[in-house]
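User: Before I run my own analysis I want an independent prediction to cross-check against. Here's the chain; please return only the structure tokens and, at the end, one sentence I can use as a sanity check.
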Amino acid sequence: MGALIKLLLLLLVAVFLASEVNLSTSLYRYEDNDIELTFPVWQTDNPWYYLKWNPSAGEFEQRVMSEQ
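Assistant: Structure tokens:
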């Protein structure tokens, strides 16, 4: 069980290293807080997975590349 958890954590770290993460934060303006994740980093124009979340605007956008 411990080996499985280590493997999953290692895979999660590998995904984050292969992703472009834009994190905008502000202590004073709640509207300026958002997260944008693009996977993989070498295909930013047509990513396999894209996520954008802005909690103040209630905006949650998620796109997964479909097979063509």
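Sanity check: The beta strands are 20-24, 34-39, 49-54, 59-64.
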